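quick q for whoever's on today - can somebody do inverse folding on this one?? i tried earlier but teh output was garbage lol. tokens:
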């Protein structure tokens, strides 16, 4: 080992073989059973495996944490009885030699052990072998393993294979053995590998039917995650019966069909609904601010935690004390006063085109209107000219208003809301009705 620097009083000498020398010395100590300072007790038969603490800590975050926080300075024994001695010996050999033979025959168990010991290099090696051998026959099992051990890259590779062969894999019995959370993670991901919502729906039904006693109760939760806009009305009608076991599920199926059969959905200028993601990473809250002569639409970006003005547009009619709601990308301005008279007129702003369109007036002029979205229908609660409470509901499919049975003894302080196909009324004097 020489230096190429010219003669001088001082110099910095660097040994290019430093790491190799240390590695070779440690391996020599290991082979010759010299200078060990740690004993690992492995397996049910308590086999002793000796090693050097510095090597264990260099490769394993588990051992590093043990020596830093758990063990006393004079304690050099670590119990690992849940790991077979032969497997642990192979792992310790790898720490000294940098080489280990990996086999698909035992890769699952080895990956669990090195994940427990937090040996990053071996985790990467095991995952590389698995990813090279993922197929339609084993991808579901490797997905469960990736979820169990929190391995995102392996999970992504497994999902890619599953979605590529979903028509085949969805018919396997293994999918019926998944837990609810595993099923949701598998079926209700937004994936770029194809559109197979019918198979997703049928797989969900098969999973529920496999254990009806314990799984029927989560039908509505799973059903509400289906991308119904991708399914056809014919498919929904033909396959609705297995999931229409509760009122909530039945009402949800009805709302799907109503959406499909509504005039605006059936028109030719609709967007490609198959491209709509199942889950949204960013949501917009739309607010209509009514002023004397115009309406201002503002949006809230939850990701940036900020508001911005989307549009400003003049009102067709001058109104006071009206109510607003957004349903199916339409902003509806309902009731209130016009020319000092109570009005039954409803204004409708198409959010996409920014155009005001005609909308049928209510049967009854109303004041103090409360609005609710009831499965895509517009429900209006308010007080007429005689200060009597009354309710109407607008069906977007038939374009007609219908009266609803009024509640008994409501007050001006009542508030209404729609949820899961039911109408709730909160009276501040009486509670929920």
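ok took a stab at it. sequence:
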């Amino acid at each position: 080992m020489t230096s190429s620097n010219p003669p001088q009083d001082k110099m910095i000498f660097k040994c290019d073989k430093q790491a190799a020398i240390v590695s070779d010395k440690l391996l020599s100590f290991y082979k010759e059973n010299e200078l060990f300072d740690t004993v690992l007790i492995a397996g049910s038969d308590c086999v002793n495996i000796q090693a050097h603490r510095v090597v264990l800590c260099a490769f394993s975050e588990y051992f590093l944490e043990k020596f830093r926080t758990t063990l006393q300075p004079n304690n050099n024994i670590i119990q690992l009885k849940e790991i077979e001695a032969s497997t642990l010996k192979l792992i310790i050999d790898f720490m000294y030699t940098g080489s280990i033979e990996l086999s698909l025959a035992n890769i699952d168990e080895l990956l669990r052990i090195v994940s427990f010991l937090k040996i990053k290099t071996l985790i990467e090696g095991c995952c590389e072998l698995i990813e090279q051998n993922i197929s339609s026959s084993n991808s579901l099992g490797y997905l469960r393993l990736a979820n169990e051990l929190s391995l995102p890259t392996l999970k992504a590779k497994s999902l890619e294979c599953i979605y590529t062969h979903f028509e085949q894999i969805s018919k396997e019995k293994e999918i019926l053995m998944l837990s609810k959370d595993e099923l949701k993670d598998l079926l209700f991901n937004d994936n770029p590998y194809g559109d197979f919502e019918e198979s997703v729906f049928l797989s969900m039904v098969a999973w529920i039917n496999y254990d009806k006693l314990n799984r029927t109760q989560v039908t509505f939760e799973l059903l509400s995650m289906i991308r119904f806009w991708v399914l056809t009305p014919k498919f929904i009608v033909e396959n609705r019966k297995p999931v229409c076991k509760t009122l909530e599920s039945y009402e949800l199926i009805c709302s799907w069909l109503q959406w499909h059969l509504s005039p605006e959905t059936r028109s030719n200028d609709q967007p490609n609904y198959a491209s709509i993601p199942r889950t949204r990473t960013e949501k917009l809250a739309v607010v209509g601010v009514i002023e004397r002569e115009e309406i201002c639409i503002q949006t809230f970006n939850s990701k940036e935690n900020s508001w911005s003005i989307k549009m400003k547009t003049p009102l067709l009619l001058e109104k006071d004390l009206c109510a607003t709601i957004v349903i199916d990308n339409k902003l509806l301005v309902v009731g209130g006063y016009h020319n000092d008279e109570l009005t039954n007129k409803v204004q409708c702003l198409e959010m996409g085109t920014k155009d005001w369109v005609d909308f049928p007036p209510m049967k009854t002029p109303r004041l103090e209107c409360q609005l609710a979205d009831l499965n895509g229908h517009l429900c209006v609660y308010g007080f007429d000219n005689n200060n009597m409470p009354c309710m109407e509901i607008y069906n977007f499919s038939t374009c007609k208003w219908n009266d609803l049975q009024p509640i008994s003894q409501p007050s001006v302080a009542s508030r209404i809301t729609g949820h899961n196909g039911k109408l709730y009324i909160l009276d501040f004097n009486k509670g929920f009705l």
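fwiw Residues 279-290 have pLDDT under 50 and may be disordered. also The two ends are 90 Å apart (CA to CA). so keep that in mind when u check it
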